[in-house]
Amino acid sequence: MPSFDIVSEINKVEVSNAVDNANRELATRFDFRGVEASFELVAETVEMIGEGEFQLKQMMDVLRNACVKRGVDTASIDMQDIDRSGKLHKQKVVFKEGIDQPTAKKIVKLIKDAKMKVQTAIQGDKLRVTGKKRDDLQQVMQLVKGADLGQPFQFENFRD
């Protein structure tokens, strides 16, 4: 019976490269000369440090552009609240990985509402979709790609 898995992953190496490229761009930009502003990659999060909220917004644009150039989907970016300490403002940017329970349930409901002849099972942070025909599975892939669920999805482990 054909099956595949729906997962949500990011390439950590490309995120690291995007952060390095964003730091290089900050060093060359005229509006960031003589200003304390930087990106730091800490585990799964990127910490933006700047002197004002306006600078953090500009830095977010720089980071998004660097991610797009490196092939990292910007739909996986989740911005946290701004922390102020002295003259510095810090903001954490988290990259969403894995499919949480509410999103998994939305995907299952989306597939069931479309009346597809497939079975969907939640397995931790991924979903397994099985069906009798390969065409049904490809329709499910198109359905999930077309749905706006707030994060990117990949399809892997396709078996015939």
CATH class division of the largest domain:
Alpha Beta
The tally of helices reads 4
Q: Based on Cα principal axes, name the global outline.
A: elongated
Q: How many strands appear in the DSSP assignment?
A: 8
Going by CATH, the homologous superfamily of the largest domain would be YajQ-like, domain 2
Order of helices and strands, N to C? EHEEHEEHEEHE
User: How far apart are the termini?
Assistant: 6 Å
Low-confidence stretches: none
Q: How is the quaternary structure best described?
A: single chain
Into how many domains do the coordinates divide? 2
Strand residues, percent: 25-35%
Strand order of the largest sheet: 6-7-1-8
Under CATH, the topology of the largest domain can be stated as: Alpha-Beta Plaits
At a glance:
With 160 residues, the chain is α+β, with helices and mostly antiparallel strands. It has helices at 12-28, 53-70, 101-113, 134-146; strands spanning 3-7, 38-42, 45-50, 77-85, 88-95, 118-123, 126-131, 154-159.
What do these coordinates show?
The longest helix has 18 residues. A hairpin with a 2-residue loop joins strand 6 and strand 7. The chain has a four-stranded antiparallel β-sheet, with helices on one face. Helix content is 38%, strand content 32%. It is elongated, with a radius of gyration of 19 Å. It folds into two domains: 68 residues, Alpha-Beta Plaits (2-Layer Sandwich), CATH 3.30.70; 84 residues, Alpha-Beta Plaits (2-Layer Sandwich). The chain is an alpha+beta fold.
